[in-house]
Amino acid sequence: MENKVRVRFAPSPTGPLHIGGVRTALYNYLFAKKHKGDFILRIEDTDQKRYVEKAEDYIVESLNWCGIPYDEGPAKPGKYGPYKQSERKEIYQKYIQVLLDKGEAYYAFDTPQELDQLRAEAEKKGEKFSYGPSNRNELNNSLHLEEEETKKRIASGDFVVRFKTPVNTTLNIKDEVRGYVEVQTDNLDDKILFKSDGLPTYHLANIVDDHLMEITHVIRGEEWLPSLPLHYLLYEAFGWKAPSFAHLPLILKPSGKGKLSKRDGDKDGFPVFPLQWKDPKTGDLSSGYREDHYLPETLVNVLAFLGWNPGTEQELFSLEELIQAFDLKKVNKAGAKFDPKKTLWFQQQYLQKAPIEYLMKAFMNELESLEIEASEAYVEEVIHTVKERATFVSDLWELSSFYFEAPQDFAPKASKKVWKEDTEIVMKKLIEVISEVDDFSEENLKEEIKPWIADSGYGFGKVMQPLRLSLVGDMKGPDVFHILASIGKNEAVKRMNFAIQSLS
Ligand code: GLU
Question: Whole-model pTM?
């Protein structure tokens, strides 16, 4: 029987999660669920210098908001825990010793100053210094120092452990997205795996954990592709079976030129973070999809399409449909351009599908803050009428304010266009007609007013346009008869009189 699929999302809590990270989590989740496997959240927090408080909470909250649940993680212990690398120190200590004992790693004692000098010297010659197969035997390490000397230096505490990259070997590593990647080991350097503070670097911790957590597929961003040869070699050094690897394409700026960064979002007014983030050091605020009133379904759908597509015409996908349709083989190699306009289109679509309870709650809150009273039934009816023109819940008020309050003024351009010299007479006659109508339903209003317009000889526009202007204050809004029926006879007549007063 094939092993159960187990994948992980392994963010480092160094700041807010970029939407690229959310996409990585999403693809992992989709892949896991498609194959009835497990999706694990692992927090890679061994780099103390880059640790940012609250970043871990932010990651968890982001996944929760997006509706991407994990099966195991820090707050959901499973049998492979702990799921935070800072709680797994002893494990890494044990495994670095395994590599040292096998001769696959070595102690290095070069001081930062010595290394800086070597770098500077190489630079002078127009070369790049690299600590690896070609020069490691001349450097300050346990590969050639006397055993006694080595012991003394280890005891002094100033050391790192480096990987001993195999010499002169050609690797052919399969990536599920890119096919085979060929690498010459002589071009690699001996990366640091462990530091004297007793903590592993990303590379060691990542491989040890993926192995112990029985991860079958590593699905992560393209920026980790350069680490792939080392990771592959580490599996070999341990004598472990490597998982499958898939490196996801970059998410590019809308222009397609370069990686999508925080600044692109600030500039063009779209968030690059799922949730708002306040930088704990600078206090700077970055906008988030949640606070900008996007629905989580929008973000999930948008991200799903950044680097993958189902190969059909269908664009709107629920999470469940994405699970069914998702296929690593259909993930693209080329970077995926972020498209803010398309994102708005998705949001508009999802707002139409949003449960009425969600729209009601948000809109009722807004009305309350504006001190406007209205019955739930009335508000619900208004939402149904205007929502097709809305992209965000926050658009509802702008689209419907005239259902709740009379216009205070009239759009000048529209007024000039539709309010003519004889409009006052027309409106006054219309007020008389309207005043006579008993059944103020939309249907009946149509039945009473339309024939009157036809008989009057004024023409439909000459009556209906100033009527709309009177009721709405502008030439926008849904069917005038719907507005009339909704606000009622008294309010309608009041607004028409006010328009006559203001515009004639
Ligand atoms: N901790 C790494 C990150 O922050 C994980 C990379 C990987 O998935 O291997 O993205």
Answer: 0.92
